[in-house]
Each structure stands twice: as structure tokens, then as C-alpha cells.
Amino acid sequence: MRGLSAPFNKSLKMPLPEWVKTQLKEIKKTQKFFKKHKLNTVCETLRCPNRSICYKQPTATFMIMGEICTRGCKFCNAEKGYPEPIDNSEPEKIAIAVKEMSLKYVVITSPTRDDLSDGGAKHFAKTVKTIKKLNPDTLVEVLVPDFQGNKTSIETVLNSGIAVFAHNIETVKKFYGAVRKAVYIRSLNILKTAKEINSEIITKSGFMLGLGENIEEVYNILKDLKSVECDIVTIGQYLQPSKKALPVVEYIKPAVFETIAEKAMQIGFKVVVSGPLIRSSTKAYESYLAVKEGKYGKL
User: Where on the phi/psi map is residue 206: left (φ > 0), alpha (ψ -120 to 50), or beta?
Assistant: First the structure.
């Protein structure tokens, strides 16, 4: 990591290295299913590079409460603005889709909804409960926004029957405000509060590399996440999702991801998923199983 002095130079254009190239094959059938049922997925909204892999597995990541975000982080492809009202039929639509697709592990996430008094926590809980009612054997992971630090919102989600509680730290501390429209310590406290409310819950976080951070800043993230008892960490390469988003400063080599994974294990994480194409939902089910079965390590 070079830690460039001008990490957000819009004129910077870098060729895609071989280790981050991916082919999106055999995804049309799943895309048509999502479109038919009018379902939003992170897979499509954020143009995840792993769609061709995940669509073949019995897992999916659904985005609830629309596609409009009230924050507008510079690395994200989501639109910033004033969101539409919540669709109260959405939990049932997702539950039915989960059943029709025979999914055994589901991740539920959302854009940040600062327009809602609870940040959307009750809708998260309703979605999880509806999925579980129709699909009692399906495990549900939630990837939540920061709820502006509201403890009641965190507790509402925790009590809905989830398997994993996740909140992404996203990037190093120095990029909060300019890149990540949030508060660093508040994001850490989301995970800390979850453990305080339920010490048995599996917690998870993730972040990206390639925005101009240096290795010491990355290690500091790991130490901070460990200090709040985070169990699982995912580390991936930032890939510019659209022209409006920040450009990539650096493509991190696979060997560096491996070095960081080793450091994360030394620090004490139970499961580490690290690599150029890793996203927060990559190997989500495998990570959950590894923690539950005590088979800690790198995936």
C-alpha cells in the first residue's frame, strides 16, 4: 500500500489487474427472478463481482427499504436522496422468494435511513421474523447501518431471531467524513453494544482496501474491531462501482491480503475472509459455521 498523498484524484485511471478480473456468467436466470418479484439485492445494486459464484449457492443478500440512501458515501453506487416510504409487504415478498429459491442462509441489509426515527430497525426485525416464520430452518444474517447509535434499534434487531449481527467499518479512520459519511467510533460502538446486549451473538464487520490507506492504518482497524469483540472480519479490494464513485487508488496484491489475514488471526479474530474479490457477504454461511463449530481460521 503506497498511502498516496492525493488518493481522490478523479483523473486517475488504472488498468484492472488479472487478480481482480472476473466473469459474470450464468446469472441471467437469477436476475430475472429478482426482477419478477421486484426485489432489491446488494448483488445487483452494488454490482458485486462475485455474483456468478454466489448465485450458484443457496445464499443471497437482499437490500430492504429501497435503494435511496440518506448519506451518500463516496465509494457506494447507491443513490443519495430522500427515500420512498417503506413497503410493508416487502418482508413477505422476501420470505416467499427465500422459500422459492430454497435458500439456507440469507443476508439482509439496507441503505442508511436517517429519515426514520429508528433507522429502519423495526422493518429489519419484521423482515427477519417473516423469513423465519415461512422458512424456520433458514439462517439470517443482518448487515445494518449505524442507526445513529440508537441502542433500542440495535436491541430490536438482535431480538428478531438473527444468526449474525454485522456492521461494516468500511475504511480507515482518516477517511471518515470525506469518504465514509459516518462516525468511526459510533460504528465501533454498534458492534460493542450488540455484544453487551447479547454476549452470545456472532458479530461481523468488513472493510475495503485500495483507497489510499497504509498498512498501519489497516492494522489499527483490526485492533479496534477486536477491542469490541468482533468475531468475523472480511477484507476486500475497493472496485469503483460507477463513474460517480471515487476512483481506485491502488490495486492491492493477493499476497498483501494474505499478510493482513495472518495479522488478523494473530490479533484474535475467529474467522478472517480476505482477498481482492471478497465482499462482506462472501462465504457468509461458511463463516457462521466456522464460528459455531469452533473451527477458527482463514476462509
Answer: beta
The set of residues, in sequence order, having a beta carbon less than 8 Å from that of 197 and lying 6+ positions away, is 151, 154, 155, 158
Contacts of 259 (CB under 8 A, 6+ apart): none
**Of 7 and 86, the one with more pLDDT:** 86
DSSP state of 86: P
Closest residue by Cα to residue 110 from 66, 59, 74, 175: 66
Residue-wise pLDDT tens digits, 257-267: 999 999 999 99
What pTM was computed for the model? 0.86
Sign, CA dihedral 227-233-236-241, equals negative
Specify the amino acid at residue 225.
L
Number of H helices, E strands in the chain: 10, 10
Give the model confidence (pLDDT) of 202-235 as tens digits. Answer: 999 999 999 999 999 999 999 999 999 999 999 9
- CA torsion sign for 272, 256, 175, 84 is negative
Locate the DSSP E strands across the chain: 59-63, 68-69, 79-80, 105-109, 139-143, 164-166, 202-209, 232-237, 271-274, 297-298
Q: Which string of DSSP letters, residue by residue, matches 87-147?
A: -TTHHHHHHHHHHHTT-SEEEEE----TTSTTTTHHHHHHHHHHHHHH-TT-EEEEE---G
Instruction: Compute the residue count for the chain.
Output: 299
- Give the whole-angstrom CA distance, residue 113 versus residue 86: 10
Sign of the C-alpha dihedral, residues 209, 299, 288, 20?
positive
Mean pLDDT of 142-155: 97
Q: Which of 62-66, 80-84, 268-272 has the highest mean pLDDT?
A: 268-272
